[in-house]
Design brief:
alpha/beta; Rossmann fold; six-stranded mixed β-sheet; 7 helices; about 35% helix
């Protein structure tokens, strides 16, 4: 479970203050796959980072129960000068999992070939996402934060992402950002909609999609 109590998060630009969350109160239930929906620029990625604890909030409180992954699509936990293999070993030690097992899983899953032993800074954005998804799926988190990563790669790789994600969802929960409603319907069973600093929870993912579509009109 992840609980936000009176959470406010803003960004200041040269001309205005942008509200991501405005006194938000919401519970992300444990063991559910929650779609995070909102128009472009609503702050979905920022919210994932807030939940992960990688960026701070202006005010309020966030209560986290269980282990939470980093936002998978952004690979912010990887050091640019280390190789994919070295980054994987480091994260295995950080999260207390078997180094060799995680290394084998990530190498097989990400399909990076010789790039697995090259510096992370040399990777394309797609390669970075594939490594990030492979490493994160190899660690038994209670909640996975997923940002568009299942759209990476060809159809065969996307099917592999879907299968391993669905396997993890048997024992964990997730918060998923995707612009593809087919993906949302396939991966999620409930949802939240973020719009102009307000966030609303829907126990039925179809209700969340309907609200999201109404905002876009």
């Amino acid at each position: 479970m992840i609980l936000l109590r009176n959470v406010t998060k803003t960004y200041r630009t040269k001309s205005m203050r942008k509200w991501i969350l405005k006194n938000a109160n919401i519970t992300f239930p444990a063991g559910r796959s929650v779609a995070l929906l909102g128009r472009n620029g609503a702050g979905k990625t920022t919210l994932l980072k807030v939940i992960a604890g990688t960026i701070g909030i202006d005010s309020g409180e966030i209560i986290r129960q269980g282990s939470i992954s980093w936002p998978i699509g952004f690979a912010g936990s990887f050091h640019p000068q280390l190789t994919g293999a070295q980054n994987t070993r480091f994260l295995a030690r950080v999260y207390g999992v078997d180094t060799d097992e995680l290394l084998d899983f990530a190498k097989d899953f990400a399909e990076l070939g010789n790039f697995f032993n090259m510096p992370f800074r040399t990777y394309s954005s797609g390669m970075r996402s594939r490594l990030a998804f492979g490493v994160s799926m190899g660690v038994p988190f209670d909640t996975y934060l997923v940002d568009e990563v299942t759209s990476v790669g060809d159809a065969q790789f996307r099917r592999k992402c879907d299968l391993v994600f669905q396997e993890r969802m048997k024992t964990a929960g997730a918060i998923v950002v995707s612009h593809g409603m087919d993906t949302i319907r396939k991966l999620c069973d409930c949802g939240v909609v973020l719009d102009e600093g307000k966030i609303t929870y829907y126990d039925d993912v179809e209700q969340a999609i309907e609200k999201h579509n109404s905002i876009l009109q």
